[in-house]
Design a protein that fits this description.
383 residues; 64% helix; 0% strand; globular
């Protein structure tokens, strides 16, 4: 993306924007005040003094889903402004970020179509960062729920979308295993989604590697950790399903593991052979960066944390560090993902207040917190 002599000429303005946007994150004091609130109106009053003030100004009553929708729309507006200010190769990098949400939206529409849900309801649930043209979104449910119908869906609609190549890879790989063209109907939607996300991670990884420099190093590491997280979750979630049958482990399940990451290739090969949580734990013990996360899971959430919480904490730490470097694209990806974590925090706090579960309200991961355990001089996370 350019070295020190050219980066600011090409990408200095959007980088300055995203680094300025860092100041919009909620601080420790904001979280402290929200956790003391008794009602959602109190939460809204506290948020009126933050960067979310304008986004919530027109809401008559605050509910968690409304708060989430307003916060996501605010993030999308900011992201789209960054995208309009970007030129190559940053513009393609930002497009890659949206492909993940496109995949999730398509899978949501496919899953909703199979269960016969209303298209307007489904479109309302789609993530705004992954939206296609409305005609494209509405055409997906019009195809019959038959093998031929899904083939027509791909050939006439999905092939023209940015994520079309990932669908093409999935269909080609499945056909190469001697299966008929009804794969989209018979394979579980989540398995299809895992395959498409795998192709996206691998494609994104190749792109940042081609960019070189700090972007390849920082963003490449973020994608490696993302790939490892997917591989661990796919293995963990397969227990008790057909994917964990011995014949399926080395074929179908292993094929869902991304071909990059700190676990790849030795770790993913070992993951393909595990059949229960004990075996998974023994494999992860060989990788220090994941053994501590697995210990959180094996402890059974005794300290109130799940493995997802441990992954979120690790992700926030890495994403915050992405802002420390200079002249690279990782800060743009980090901004989107850290904002998503902040939105999760807002929804969690508001849900706890609404359901009067105040004893659970501190189970969130603050962003850029001075009390974070990875910051110098801090031993415990702020509550």
């Amino acid at each position: 993306p350019g070295d020190m002599t050219t980066f600011n000429i090409l990408h200095g303005f959007p980088e300055a924007l995203v680094r300025g946007m860092r100041s919009s994150f909620l601080g420790d004091a904001d979280y402290h005040h929200m956790t003391q609130c008794e009602t959602l109106d109190d939460v809204r009053l506290n948020l009126s003094e933050t960067d979310y003030g304008d986004a919530l100004a027109d809401m008559s009553t605050l509910i968690p889903t409304g708060l989430q929708k307003a916060a996501v729309e605010k993030l999308v507006t900011e992201f789209q402004y960054l995208r309009t200010q970007a030129i190559e190769p940053l513009s393609t990098f930002l497009d890659f970020i949206t492909y993940e949400y496109m995949i999730e939206n398509v899978m949501l529409l496919l899953k909703g179509t199979l269960s016969g849900r209303d298209i307007n309801e489904l479109i309302a649930q789609c993530h705004p960062l992954g939206m296609f043209k409305e005609s494209t979104m509405r055409s997906i449910p019009t195809f019959e729920s038959t093998p031929r119908g899904y083939q027509d869906l791909y050939q006439t609609v999905l092939v023209d979308t940015p994520v079309g190549p990932y669908f093409s890879l999935f269909l080609a790989e499945t056909a190469g295993r001697g299966e008929s063209s009804n794969v989209l109907e018979e394979v579980e939607i989540e398995i299809i989604k895992s395959s498409l996300i795998k192709y996206w991670i691998e494609d994104f990884g190749k792109y940042v590697e081609c960019l070189g420099g700090e972007t390849a190093q920082i963003m490449g590491d973020l994608l490696k950790v993302r790939a490892d997280t997917n591989a661990i979750n796919i293995t963990l979630n397969s227990f008790g399903t057909p994917l964990n049958e011995p014949a399926m482990r080395a074929s179908d399940r292993k094929r869902l593991y991304p071909a990059l990451g700190h676990l790849y290739p030795a770790g993913t090969s070992m993951l393909a052979d595990v059949g229960d949580e004990d075996e998974l734990g023994r494999v992860l013990d060989l990788f220090p960066q994941y053994s501590s996360i697995w210990n959180v899971h094996s402890a059974g959430g005794s300290d109130g944390k799940s493995i997802d919480d441990a992954f979120y904490e690790r992700d926030v730490q890495m994403l915050e560090l992405a802002f420390e470097g200079q002249m690279h694209f990782g800060a743009f990806y980090a901004y989107v993902k850290l904002k998503e974590q902040e939105i999760r925090n807002l929804v969690w706090i508001s849900e706890c207040i609404l359901q009067q579960q105040k004893e659970e309200i501190h189970k969130f991961v603050p962003v850029f917190s001075f009390n974070a355990p990875w910051r110098a001089g801090s031993k415990t996370r702020g509550r």
